[in-house]
Amino acid sequence: MSAPSLSKACGAILRRDLTLAWRRRGDMAMPVLYALIVITLFPFALGPEDTLLQRIAGGVVLVTVLLAMLLALDAMFRSDIEDGSLEQLVVSPQPLAMLLAMKILAHWLTTALPLIIISPLLGGMLHLPASVIPVLVLALMLATPLLSLLGAVLVALTAGTRRSGMLLALMLLPLCVPVVIFAAGAVAAAQQGLPWFAPIAWLGAGLVLALVLAPLACAIALRIALDA
Amino acid sequence: MATWIPLWVHKLGSPPIFYRFAGLVRPWAFALALLLGTIALYGGLVSAPADYQQGDAFRIIYIHVPSAWMSLFIYFVMAAASFVALVWRVKLAEVIAMESAPVGAAFTAITLATGSLWGRPMWGTWWTWDARLTSELVLLFLYLGVIGLYHSFEDRRQGARAAAFLAIIGIINVPIVHFSVNWWNTLHQGSTIRILGPSKMAPSMVWPLLTMMLATKAYYVASLMGRARADLLAMESGKDWVRQIAQEGSSP
User: Residue B55's beta-bridge partner residues?
Assistant: First the structure.
């Protein structure tokens, strides 16, 4: 039996993961709900002052999105490990890095994209000026795939362990510091009327680098974590 | 096998030989650390003159600065050993990398603690989000991540390999974090307070610092050897050489 072509295999994986996610639409809504709840709590904790909320809005939305993604990250490979389909990917003739890249893409589409879609609403709830919202969305468009890619490497590393939730947060923190700094820097600069393109460009550069390297690193990590 | 590497280097990679070697090195390194540490403490706390601006408070650098150097140095050692462990699958390199991590984390914690003790009278605050301080804190989290990942696997060697991979990711991350934190800080505030550069110091203040640096290095070696010995015994507990050592120990 000859192996199917790479593009066919990639398409099949993407379709499978998206179908699975669609069948569990409730899980898909969880990060969005979580982000909405966190954003709702901030005015209660800090007071409904417009100026204060406006000043922290960009950073709060970014951190909330990051935490919501962290919440969903743990589940990226879990069901595949439990039913053994991840091992099937590892032994399949296609390059593992490409197949994992498809899984990461599916994960990004199902968890990060809904968050990006509601991010104008999140920003609006904290009175983020309408002129800054496009910059926020752009920053999220670049920052969330970066987080998905970096997170996937770490999730793959913890694939062989049972408890990984807290550990994942601990491992992701040093990696996401630059991402948060640049994304929040762009939003803050736009809010102050300063040129905001430089941090966005850095994020873009980081994303390009991560797009190439992270799937490879993810494949290596997975092989390390699964070869018992 | 490369011929330019002398044979004894290859031999050291074998657990029983390294176990004996570490046992020989450890007391000497420990004695050296104690001796140099005492000299450096005397030099730093007694013989060095008080700083004309900071008074006696500056003396904490004799702990703070060598610890900060060690926190980075040990991370590099750990990452190098991790690389060796992943590429050539040397069991001993895994042990060195994983047993370096707690020592490095301890030095990082000492650096942060002494830094904030010094910062209270000098800067008027325990903590400030200065670029250097933040980088050091992130370094501590990197160490803790490596240690946590290592211990979350049931199989030691598998955990060591996964944590080694994380250490390598971390070393790529360190310059990125440092650079981005610098950028972030300069965006918000202009000049930051810098710790005195050693080159701007009087020789009477410098020599205890350098001696203390050697002492911390020696302590690291001693500590690493002890930890590696214990780890090797646990890892190789089913092997003959461990059984021999156990029998020697039990029959006086």
Answer: B51
Q: What is the mean pLDDT of residues B50-75?
A: 84
CA A86/CA A76 separation, integer angstroms? 11
Does the pLDDT at position B185 exceed 70?
Answer: no
What pTM, to 2 d.p., does this model score? 0.88
Chain B positions touching A164 (Cβ under 8 A) are 152
- DSSP secondary structure string for all residues of A146-161: HHHHHHHHHHHHGGG-
Beta bridge partners of B51: B55
- Averaged pLDDT for residues A36-44: 93
Is A181–B183 a contact, with Cβ atoms under 8 angstroms apart? yes
Q: Where are the domains of chain A?
A: 3-227
Contact between B183 and A171 using a beta-carbon 8 Å cutoff: no
CA distance B126 to B112: 10
Nearest C-alpha neighbor of B119 from the set B42, B195, B232: B195
If residue A100 lies in a helix (H) or strand (E), which one and from where to where? helix A96-107
- What is the predicted ipTM? 0.87
Residue closest to A62 by CA, chosen among A150, A144, A148: A144
The rounded distance, in Å, linking the Cα atoms of A218 and A128 is 36
pLDDT at residue A204 is higher than 70: yes
